[in-house]
Amino acid sequence: MTPEFELGVLRDGAMVLFTTRGLSHELKRVEFYRDMKLLKLIYDDGTDDGDLIEYEVTDHAADLIKGSARNILVVDAQNMDDPEGFDVPLVQIGI
Length: 95
Prior knowledge:
Helix content is 8%, strand content 43%. It is mainly beta. Strand 6 (71-76) and strand 7 form a beta hairpin. The protein starts with a strand and ends with a strand.
């Protein structure tokens, strides 16, 4: 089974999130809930409901996110012939 999400770090330290799930709308931001180690995609569709990514990130990945810049590159890789990317704010919530 192919994972729906892959989280990585680019050479310059920027975070990147690949998804094969597909995005329902353009992204507005990504929220990281520090206490639960979960990411949530918030779309630019007039609501703040979004999609909670139901995979807890590892402790190592959580540390990388906590120390990262304020943006994250999200790549919709559902169609690899024409991938779409969004450079959006990464909002960290919690202690």
